[in-house]
Amino acid sequence: MMIDDAHASGVLGAGGAGTVDHFGLHGRVDIQVGTLSKAIGVLGGFIAGPPHLIEWLQNRGRPYLFSTSRAARRRRRVRRGAPDHPR
Ligand SMILES: Cc1ncc(COP(=O)(O)O)c(C=O)c1O
Question: CA 57, CA 64: separation in Å to the nearest integer?
């Protein structure tokens, strides 16, 4: 079972623990994804799952690779003295 917890993290469950806690599904969910852009209020997200899935995503997941390259480009801009967040 996979749960997209985008609208439940920080809202449902004890202390905002999310869907798994709200419905008592501990140990029954294989993959859990979520965003930090809603209740948490920042940029980013998360995936939790078995080690072989996480390793595969780290090596093959295109958004993961692209977000890594964006950070490197930003570092180069900052090193040149350009603003971190151009307007
Ligand atoms: C169910 C669900 N999953 C994931 C997302 C992704 O959110 P974001 O692109 O803001 O990280 C959204 C955004 O609305 C969503 O509704």
Answer: 8
Quote the radius of gyration of the chain (alpha carbons, Å): 17
The length of the chain is 87
* Percent of the chain clearing pLDDT 90 (strictly above): 54
Residues at CB less than 6 angstroms from ligand 1:
4, 6-7, 35, 37, 45
Please tell me the pTM assigned to this model. Answer: 0.70
- For ligand 1, the distance from its centroid to the CA atom of residue 7, given in whole angstroms, is 8
- Strands 31-35 and 2-4, by their bridges, are parallel
Q: Which residue is associated with the tokens 């859990």?
A: 32
Mind listing the pLDDT tens digit for each residue in 37-72?
Answer: 999 888 888 999 999 999 998 888 877 766 555 566
